[in-house]
């Protein structure tokens, strides 16, 4: 690798390479490495920014879809609470019976509300 990097100076042998040439080569390598790292950091920052924008768009889309379904944050919590109660009690839930239960306060729910 070193023999390829220093043109025409290594025709004789590696021993003939001067310390100054090696220091110069090291400086070039450090500069190239710094430039490469800076470019990588810039690309990573752009990628993170792009992913944050995509996350925000997905959050907005999720909110729109949730509002279209009629399940806001509280509605989703109620739905999950009802689903958990139903599965733990091994009840068969009729989806139409969930709608009145979702309209009630989550604290006042009981298993009787879930029965078909």
Automatic annotation (TrEMBL):
GO terms for cellular component: nucleus. It holds the Pfam family K-box. GO terms for molecular function: DNA-binding transcription factor activity. Keywords: Coiled coil. Residues 40-68 form a coiled coil. Residues 1-75 form the K-box domain. This is K-box domain-containing protein. It comes from Brassica carinata.
């Amino acid at each position: 690798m070193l023999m390829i990097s220093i043109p025409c100076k290594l025709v004789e042998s590696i021993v003939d390479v001067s310390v100054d040439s090696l220091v110069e080569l090291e400086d070039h390598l450090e500069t190239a490495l710094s430039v490469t790292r800076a470019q990588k950091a810039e690309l990573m920052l752009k990628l993170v920014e792009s992913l944050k924008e995509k996350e925000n768009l997905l959050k907005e889309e999720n909110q729109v879809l949730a509002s279209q379904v009629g399940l806001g944050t509280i509605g989703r919590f109620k739905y999950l609470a009802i689903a958990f109660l139903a599965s733990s009690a091994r009840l068969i839930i009729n989806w139409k019976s969930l709608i009145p239960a979702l309209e009630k306060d989550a604290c006042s729910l009981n298993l009787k509300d879930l029965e078909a």
